[in-house]
Amino acid sequence: MDKIISAYDIAKSNTIKGDFIDRLHSKYTVIFLFTTCILVGLRQYDKKAIACWLPNQFSDEQGKFFSIFIEHFLNFLTELNFK
After folding, report:
1. Chain-centre distance of CA 77, in angstroms?
2. What pLDDT shows up at residue 11?
3. How distant, in Å, are the alpha carbons of 35, 41, 48, 58 from that of 70?
4. What rounded mean pLDDT belongs to the chain?
5. pTM beyond 0.85
6. Residues 56 and 39 in one domain
7. Residues 75 and 59 in one domain
8. DSSP string, 36-69
9. What tens digit of pLDDT does each residue of 12-45 get?
10. Are 50 and 74 in contact (CB under 8 A)?
11. 37 is in which domain, residue-wise?
12. Which residues lie closer than 8 Å to 71 by C-beta, 6 or more apart?
């Protein structure tokens, strides 16, 4: 139990040291990274994980067809690998 308490005291004393600006940068860096992770995760969950570049000659219908084709093709490949 003494080892746990001493480890806690060491961890508590190793807080962010520095002036106000250092602490502020640390805080906003964590908030920025967390927000970015959430936004990327939501985009992945929304089934828009792959954004393909299409030439300007493609019409909107061709772009939609290509996106659907790629999505089904990737689903097919994942089913092959897991079965």
Report:
1. 23
2. 63
3. 29, 20, 12, 15
4. 77
5. no
6. no
7. yes
8. HHHHHHHHHHTT--------TTS-HHHHHHHHHH
9. 665 666 677 777 787 788 889 999 999 888 877 7
10. yes
11. 1-48
12. 47, 50
